[in-house]
Write a structure and sequence with these properties.
The chain has 191 residues and is an alpha+beta fold. 29% of the residues lie in helices and 25% in strands. It has two helices and ten strands; from the N terminus they run E-E-E-E-E-E-H-H-E-E-E-E. It is globular. It starts with 5 loop residues before the first strand and ends with a strand.
């Protein structure tokens, strides 16, 4: 499957690059042997002087995801308890109950990964690393959905980065890459 690329431009100077979606899975291998799988984020690497894939270790985002997943789990548990009440509870709503059990299992796995990532983030000494050059001199970049401008990052010229979805770029196909990192974000291996 190929995916469209988009252009990333600076509103203050002539900087331009392509945003190409590359499927990357990041796995952290902790000192005690635990494996935590996650994705990556987009950001600016000051070492590469470019828009790049960076580790997705923003504590605020991870905490918000944890709260969201816990709320979702609580709602599903409440619904399951409602379905388990009554004389014929074992026979009624069987498919919905099975689905809720499956969803609760999936949520438990997702919560375990988020908790594992929060533990890694709390113990880290380095900032999020660039997944190209491994520098920890990075800044997070997120584009506002209303105007497609990254208000959380200011380019060296004083402008902001903007993403333009014009479909003019090439369609590129990449295989999934799995990066195995230690707790400090240093590359152990590539799968």
């Amino acid at each position: 499957m190929s995916v469209n690329s988009a252009r990333i431009v600076c509103t203050g100077c002539g900087y331009e690059t392509r945003e190409v979606y590359r499927p990357i899975r990041v796995r952290y291998q902790t000192a005690n042997g635990k494996i935590v799988a996650t994705g990556r984020s987009k950001g600016w690497c000051f070492n590469c002087a470019s828009y790049s894939d960076v580790e997705g270790i923003d504590a605020g985002q991870l905490h918000a995801r944890l709260m969201s997943k816990e709320l979702e789990r609580s709602e599903k548990r409440t619904r399951l308890e409602e379905l388990d009440r009554g004389l014929l509870a074992g026979w009624r709503n069987r498919s919905e109950r099975q689905l809720l059990h499956y969803e609760l299992k999936q949520l438990a796995e997702a919560l375990s990964e988020v908790v594992g990532m929060l533990e890694i983030v709390r113990s880290r000494k380095s900032n999020a690393r660039c997944l190209k050059c491994w520098s920890d001199r990075t800044a997070r970049v997120s584009f506002d959905s209303r105007d497609n401008i990254a208000h959380d990052f200011v380019h060296e010229c004083g402008g902001n980065l903007q993403i333009i979805h014009d479909g003019s770029g090439p369609r590129i196909n990449f295989r999934l890459t799995t990066l195995v990192l230690n707790e400090e974000g240093r590359l152990i291996s590539t799968e």
